[in-house]
Amino acid sequence: MPPTVPAVPGPWPGGPLDRAGAERDVDGLLETVRESMNTRVLVVHRDAAPVSDGRLVLLPVSAVDDAREWAFLGRATDDAGLLLAVVDEEADVALPTGARWAPLRAVGGDLPVEEAEILGTAVALAGWLRDAAFCPACGTLTVLRQAGWSRHCPHCGREHFPRTDPAVIVLVSSAEDPDRVLLGANAAWGGSRYSCFAGFAEAGESLEDTVQREVCEEAGVRLEAIQYRGSQVWPYPRSLMLGFRARATHDDDARADGEEIVEVRWFDRAEIGAALRGETAVQLPGTASIAHRLIDEWYRGLA
Q: How much is the pLDDT for 11?
């Protein structure tokens, strides 16, 4: 058995958030929910929300005076309404003592599963509400509908919805040794952090083809035994990360592209375990990311 590494909550099991999609078409839903004494609000600016002691901090409606946009996130397990309030960074939001603003990428892996789902949904929706106010077809200012989940263009009549772009992320194992995996250091990270290989699906491309192309472009290897593992919302700005494992056909083909990836390196299981425990200088992805989950599952020998 490999040395013990603390278990990491998976980014994809899902939580009990009831999105209550059928309610979004109810006239005046936002106003009705805002007037309810039981309603709780998650305030988001950019990709950050209030947290305290490893939990999301939900506020009463009365604590939020200057929201830029409101949206209905759904129902909590006690049937209370859950709202998103999108605020500008300069907004004055009075947080409870001990609460702080924390970004999704920093705390998403530490939150309870259901709260991580709520925060991921809120950050993704907030980005769209903040950045997509105008019709991409004619440039007219749109009107929010469906309690914040769609936009109607009063000029050309088009309906617009929050956009999600599919991207693959792949953990590559060795053709010669099942106890080795290939990771790459991205130029954007200064070459100090190693992770899985990732990229967006192109128009007309299947996910399997994207996996092959991205890894070949970034690391020079061809793949076999491609296996889907799960997905994770990653609203930077609007991605759905689709996690895969695959096996290289020839280990010796591995080479960095020299542009996006500055170095590729084969790691054995002992080296990965030491890095997960923070015992070496090798940095791996943070616990909020699906990349960490893929590496962690492989290290534990989970099928």
A: 37
